[in-house]
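chain below, 233 aa
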Amino acid sequence: MASARAAKQRPRFSAAIFDLDGTVTDSSLLHLQTFNEALKGYGITIRTDAWLSLYEGTGSRHIFEDVLMKHGLLGKADVELLRKRRRALFKELALKQLLPVKGFGRFYDILRELGIPSIIATNGEPENVRLSLQILKLDEERTITASDVGDKVKPDPAVYLAACRRLGLPPGTCVVFEDSVSGVTAAKRAGCYCVCVLTTTPREKLERAGADLVVEDYTKLAPSMFFERKGLL
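prediction:
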């Protein structure tokens, strides 16, 4: 847990914006498994180190297109068919295996008790996002996906700027919670404060990308570090 002194030195914020995969759901390697299963027919396997360094948080269309291009198959494989196959695989696995990041449930419950507005902003495909939120029993209505912003994916700041607009707040009053370099870059370009959990990406990479605070998981955080009860700000 960060010290009380450090918490007091941070500015106070009005809303929380959460990335989904790797930030709310412990799902990064679950997604990797679905990509590799979908690509099996082409003899392609994405290594875990390549996934975490190149593809984490970047969107399924980009991932398939980049992988196929590197293997000389772009234009020869049906990307949309691969994405459809992957969505079906994710649904099958998620219903059995999807879990929240450690400490997230308690952190989120306290946010709600304080009356702090929150929203999910993710590169994830809408169908997968809805499924994940249903499994975790989170509000499905308060979400922004890349499909809401013309398929602009992180590190483009579009999803975070759209989240701020939905909240009716300037970016500087919002805390973004992230786990990837592309997400940190998007959050900082949008003008938000960015907190990262160490689920997928090494600390040094997140700090180099501009993360304002990096912690192991939500058990190392308390909403009171950033927020006060709504109406007392």
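The radius of gyration is 18 Å. The beta strands are 15-18, 118-122, 143-145, 174-178, 193-197, 213-215.
thats it, cya
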